[in-house]
Amino acid sequence: METSMFLLFLFIISIHNTEEGIWLMRMTRHSKVRLYQAVKQDQFLFAVIAVTAAAYFVTSMFILFPENVCFKYAYFGFLAAMMLNVLFSYLLGAIIERKYSPGLMTGILLIIPVHTIIIMRAFQSHLILFNGLIIGTFAMSTAMLFLIPLMFKLASKWICFSQN
């Protein structure tokens, strides 16, 4: 598979996280159902940047060391974890709230179709195995579930630039 295919993930997560960064904080303030933890904008943006940086790190390591099983399945696990996030966070949130959930548009138009193509091509070229993808998805989903609250906590101590 061409390296340019793997780089699509970086463009997509950057656009997706920009969409979240612009609107998600305002959406959560007006949410009828408290699906999201109440955090300040600085905390949220710090976490978004951390997740984006993690995506850049994992992708870079996979491109530089494609034979490394950990980097390979971390990369593909990250792709699949983002797809699950679209379905179980953004889509479900939009259905429950009955209004647009920031991140849904880029999730539906970019993450789901492009990540599906990348993963399917990896299977077709025998780059990954199904069991490895499942383990990688579980590992990256778990890592993100721990990373995001940790970044909220660190940001609440380190960053105090806004009053919201």
UniProtKB/TrEMBL annotation:
Looking at the record's lineage, which domain of life comes first? Bacteria
User: Entry's Pfam families?
Assistant: HXXEE
UniProt keyword list: Membrane, Transmembrane, Transmembrane helix
Give the signal peptide, or none: none
Q: Which residues cross the membrane?
A: 6-24, 44-65, 71-92, 104-123, 129-152
Q: Which InterPro entries match?
A: HXXEE
**What is the protein name for this chain?**
HXXEE domain-containing protein
Q: Which organism is it from?
A: Sporolactobacillus mangiferae
